[in-house]
Design brief:
The protein has about 220 residues and is of the alpha+beta class. The protein has one domain. It is built from 6 helices and 8 strands. Strand 3 and strand 4 form a beta hairpin. Helix 2 runs antiparallel to helix 5.
Length: about 220
C-alpha cells in the first residue's frame, strides 16, 4: 500500500495510516461464501514508482499546473523586459528567480516520488493477500522483519512465524475507489490518497483477467463521478 502525500497531489491529506474509514464499516458487511478471486503479492520499489507515476498522470495537481503556468508567464514577461532594457540588473535577478521556480515546479512530482521511494527503502518489507468479494475487497498486510534485522524474543512460548496480519476492508459502493492500469500492475486507488498495487507478475492470466474485470465493472460508476 502506498500513501500519497501532498507533494504528489494537493489537498488530499498527509501520510495517513492504513486504517481507513472503510474498516469501520467492515463489520456491517456480510461476507460472501467464496471470493471471486484471491491471491498473494508483494511490491518492488520499481512497481511502486510506476504506480505513483500512473496516479500522478490520472489525478493531475491543479496547484502544480497553476505554478508552472504562472512562472512561465512571468518568465516571458521578464525576458521581454530584458530585451527592452538590457541594462536592468533587477530584471536579470527576476529572471533567475523565475527560472528556479519554474524548474522546481516542473520537477515537483518526480522529487515527491523520490522522497517516497527513499522512505519505503528503509521500511520493513510487506506481503499482502487480497480477496475480492461481490460486495467488498479485503487486503491483509503482513509486515516482515528485514533480512539483517535482529529480533528479541520476549515470550519463549511465542511462535516466531505467527505474525498477525493487518486487515483493510473496502466496501463497494460506499468507499471512493478507482481503478488504474499500467504495464506492470493493476492499481486500486482509495479516496485519491492510497494506492494498492497488484503486480501482474504475481497473478496468473486468469487472476489478472478476473481482477481487471471486477475493478472495471464494480468501479466504473465511481470513476465517472
Amino acid at each position: 500500500m502506498i500513501c500519497i502525500s501532498n507533494g504528489l497531489i494537493p489537498d488530499l491529506g498527509g501520510l495517513a495510516g492504513e486504517n481507513s474509514g472503510a474498516e469501520n464499516a467492515a463489520g456491517n458487511v456480510s461476507s460472501s461464501a467464496e471470493p471471486v478471486v484471491q491471491f498473494s503479492y508483494d511490491n518492488t520499489l520499481e512497481e511502486i514508482d510506476g504506480a505513483m507515476k500512473s496516479f500522478q498522470a490520472r489525478f493531475k495537481s491543479k496547484r502544480g499546473i497553476f505554478s508552472i503556468a504562472a512562472y512561465s508567464l512571468i518568465t516571458a514577461a521578464v525576458i521581454v523586459s530584458i530585451v527592452i532594457n538590457p541594462t536592468s540588473v533587477f530584471a536579470y535577478a527576476a529572471l533567475l528567480f523565475c527560472a528556479v521556480g519554474l524548474i522546481y515546479s516542473i520537477t515537483d512530482r518526480s522529487r515527491a516520488r523520490r522522497r517516497t521511494i527513499d522512505a519505503l527503502r528503509d521500511m520493513n518489507p510487506e506481503e499482502y493477500t487480497a480477496a475480492f468479494y461481490n460486495d467488498k475487497i479485503e487486503i491483509d498486510t503482513v509486515i516482515k522483519p528485514k533480512a539483517n534485522e535482529v529480533r528479541v524474543k520476549i515470550d519463549e512460548q511465542a511462535d516466531d512465524e505467527a505474525i498477525s496480519p493487518l486487515k483493510t476492508t473496502f466496501v463497494i459502493g460506499d468507499d471512493l475507489l478507482e481503478f488504474i492500469e499500467n504495464d506492470e500492475s493493476l492499481l486500486l486507488v482509495f479516496n485519491r490518497q492510497q494506492i494498492y498495487c497488484f503486480p501482474k507478475r504475481c497473478l496468473s492470466v486468469e487472476q489478472e483477467d478476473k481482477v481487471r474485470d471486477f475493478l472495471t465493472e464494480k468501479l466504473s460508476g465511481q470513476s465517472e463521478n
